[in-house]
């Protein structure tokens, strides 16, 4: 079987959840499969080729970097001119507009853009264009793979997709604490909140909760790690000063693996109350490092965390503050969550995810199953 994987985006300087998911999933498949042939399609020839295991794959760039605007806009249609695969994996619900591979599987991560209100006219236009494209692609795909049961439910609710067309493949996670530590100048003890500072990450609620935590006599600080750009980030900066916690809350920007390793090993807890996530990698990263977790009781986060974290309503800063106070004052609770967290993290791996995805692709590629 020849499997085509559309590895896009790839090569970002600061890869976010999407880029990490598609790369690690491809790596997981190649780690467990030496039999099949893989075509790794990228938009352009990458400056740094992907470090993937095995010898049964080859890189297939679809565009030159000086291609025309039209070619760049509709670059996926170049697949019909490239080496052909028996089945294609598209790592977002986006199929070529003007052609359709013989057999295709699309990956659904999350649909946050439909769950949260747009902040400006540009986001409003993008929301409706993206929804139209996703609807078109989900209907044409032979199979859909959701990365959590929560995403499967959203796919059926938002797009009317039949549940039997959707398989669930839970992701693995990166063992960040295996990386060599890169020290950051932070004041201990501290709670850690990571991720790009934007509405879906609910960072404003973390600041509100931390202010209440401080007012209740809580000790230590708050470290916010992640890019801070745009209107929402400015609201967060303003809130830090208006709530009187500027001397105890630090913003330290994007973090690499070494820096995360350093912070995960020293934080009091990870505070991750996102409003919507397709999976929520930081939960498992933190648990694997022996760090207690406070996270949301909704979306995929409760599903991933199980009984190994403190679950709170992400829209209730008071509940979040109470959870922070409990972890700072109840050492036995902290010990219990560390133990449960390590056991929970051990249940997830990219090898297992790759094996399950390979099974889905094999079903779709086999004519007798269709």
Overview of this protein structure:
Helices cover 39% and strands 16% of the residues. It folds into two domains: 2-172 and 349-369, Glycogen Phosphorylase B (Rossmann fold, 3-Layer(aba) Sandwich), CATH 3.40.50; 176-345, Glycogen Phosphorylase B (Rossmann fold). The model has no long low-confidence stretch (mean pLDDT 92). It has helices spanning 17-32, 69-73, 112-115, 121-140, 149-159, 203-215, 231-242, 257-264, 281-288, 301-305, 317-329, 331-345, 350-365; strands spanning 2-6, 37-44, 57-63, 87-90, 104-108, 143-146, 166-168, 190-194, 221-225, 249-251, 269-272, 293-296, 310-312. The chain is α/β, with parallel strands linked by helices. The chain has a seven-stranded parallel β-sheet, with helices on both faces. It has a six-stranded parallel β-sheet with strand order 10-9-8-11-12-13, with helices on both faces. It contains 13 helices and 13 strands.
